[in-house]
Amino acid sequence: MGIDLELHSSRPARNWRKSRATLLRTSRGHGDGLADALNSLQLLGVPGRLTAVDPYGDTLMNEQEAAAALQETDGLRQKCGDEHQIAALNDLEVMLEECVATPGSYLWFAGD
User: Fold this and answer.
1) Distance between CA atoms of 7 and 21, rounded to whole angstroms?
2) pTM of the full predicted structure?
3) Cβ-based neighbour number of residue 103 at 10 Å
4) Element (H, E) at 7
């Protein structure tokens, strides 16, 4: 199980091929670590925007939601002891920051 991240300039089309037109950046190197980290939050019952990410489906965040999720990354990092999870969170943080800084953008969490 893994979660890939895609940053889009606007709301992406549901069709994968058509969604390439709005694609700005991808992150696929830390999918398993990210899924593990976010899953651990759900199991602990931690509230927040990141716990709403579906590790088995797709979740979209607009720039305002990304700003809220960005505030949660430090707390999540403190709960992770695994270096793969921490690397995934560092990458997630960069993608969230880019989403916040790009008006009209969306961050797509593509789960397995």
Assistant:
1) 12
2) 0.91
3) 8
4) strand 3-8
